Amino acid sequence: MKPNTEFNLNVRDIDLIESCMRAKINVLTTERFGVDNPSYINQINKDIREIHDLLGKIHHQKNFYRPKDNYVGG
């Protein structure tokens, strides 16, 4: 048996996943300020970096809409 590598997610699903990941980053960041254990702080930082990296992967796979006519911007 091999893992499923194709997922059928809609825009709302992706938005919900991103929102949950940002909420988790907020929880971890808040928790980090109340911790005195350096190894636990390092683990929290690692978890935050991992979530940021995943958010970046999702962002770079998006196709942003750009009007064909009269588009102003990058």
Features:
2 helices, 0% strand
3D structure, described in words:
This protein is mainly α and 74 residues long. The protein is 64% helix and 0% strand. The chain is built from 2 helices and no strands. It has helices at 11-33, 38-61. α1 (11-33) packs antiparallel against α2 (38-61).
Shape: extended
What is the averaged pLDDT score?
91
Element order: H for helix, E for strand: HH
The proportion of residues forming helix, as a percent range, comes to 55-70%
Residue fraction in strands: under 5%
Question: What topology emerges from the helices and strands here?
Answer:
Elements (H helix, E strand, L loop, with lengths): L10 H23 L4 H24 L13
Give a concise summary.
By secondary structure, this protein is mostly helical.
